[in-house]
Specification:
two-stranded antiparallel ribbon; mainly alpha; 3% strand; 13 helices
Length: 332
């Protein structure tokens, strides 16, 4: 399938969606890898080279946000139509799996405030509204906030004329300078990801003008340079927004230029939201019931990720083939 980005009043340049599938698939793989790592407490070993490499690669959420920006900020949409489509897509599956997670976590004694059925019923809504069900769900609240301001941003960056381009560039430059001078203290900052949201549509909107091979070459070289610099900065016990932003953007550029895909990648891309909502449940079950098979080793998150993605892929394929499963409600 091709996606058109308006270049002028009469011309449209098609951008193949294969790159989108690759970006979304890699993003969910990186998210699963991140949680497979942190749930083993391997992120506490800050002096290991594995930690520095890991910390310099786990940017799955940023890729998700940039891709969302590239898709949602292309052109204005009727506000209520946008809200109905997007919030139905993310909130219904979240309500279902968030509730399941809440019940399972309460039964396992994960909540100090939930000790019996009455307290469980009482704390359900506050936990849902404040993100206390599971810390992995913070992304849902982030993307919901971005969706709320998307209609405004769509109108602000409407069209591809010079004025729009300059406004978009100015907004990105201001965001970049603020992040460099006064970096956010939390990686969950709405301001941080609002910037990546804008960068996503900027790169996708103007990327088609560049030669394909040249873009791949420059993007790949930039990724290697920023990645190695990022590892070096992490090894010093520091962080660099310039290195992180450069690495994420170059990764996005390279992946968006991919012109091939497979059915498996396309399906992982389509199943990515379901995988996001449920992957940590699968990880926790594997780590709880098979501790000897998942030791605290740097290689464990790698094969854990392969197992989790494979299991959830098979489950999604089964649900895909069952006609009575409401796919939009379960997030596939």
């Amino acid at each position: 399938m091709n996606i058109d980005f308006n270049h002028s009043g009469t011309q449209q340049m098609p951008v193949r969606e294969h790159g989108f599938d690759v970006i979304r698939s890699l993003a969910i793989i990186l998210v699963v890898l991140q949680h497979s790592w942190t749930m083993l407490d391997l992120d506490l070993s800050v002096n290991s080279i594995q930690h520095h490499v890991y910390s310099s690669l786990i940017y799955g959420v940023a890729l998700f946000i940039m891709l969302s920006g590239a898709l949602n900020l292309r052109k204005p949409q009727p506000m209520m139509q946008f809200y109905r489509k997007r919030f139905t897509r993310i909130l219904l599956p979240f309500l279902i799996f968030g509730t399941m997670t809440y019940i399972l976590s309460a039964l396992m004694g994960k909540y100090d405030d939930v000790n019996d059925v009455l307290s469980g019923v009482k704390m359900y809504l506050p936990f849902m509204l404040t993100g206390k069900i599971n810390e992995a769900y913070w992304f849902i609240y982030l993307i919901s906030a971005l969706y709320l301001i998307t209609p405004l941003m769509q109108r602000l960056f409407r069209g591809n004329g010079k004025v729009c381009r300059y406004v978009l560039i100015a907004a990105i430059v201001i965001w970049f300078l603020i992040e460099c001078i006064m970096p956010v203290s939390s990686p969950f900052s709405i301001f941080l990801y609002c910037g990546y949201y804008m960068v996503g549509v900027f790169l996708m909107r103007y990327l088609f003008k560049m030669n394909h091979r040249f873009t791949l070459l420059v993007g790949s070289l930039c990724f290697v340079v920023f990645f190695l610099y990022n590892v070096y900065v992490h090894s010093l016990g520091q962080s660099s927004f310039v290195a992180e932003c450069g690495e994420i953007c170059s990764m996005f550029v390279v992946l968006s230029k991919v012109k091939f895909s497979t059915r498996i990648l396309e399906r992982i891309s389509r199943y990515s939201y379901f995988m996001y909502l449920t992957h940590f449940i699968v990880i926790r079950l594997l780590y709880t019931f098979f501790p000897d098979a998942f030791p605290s080793s740097w290689i464990t998150p790698i094969y854990t990720t392969v197992i989790v993605i494979s299991l959830e892929y098979v489950l999604c394929r089964i649900m895909d083939g069952v006609g009575w499963v409401p796919k939009k409600i379960v997030g596939i």
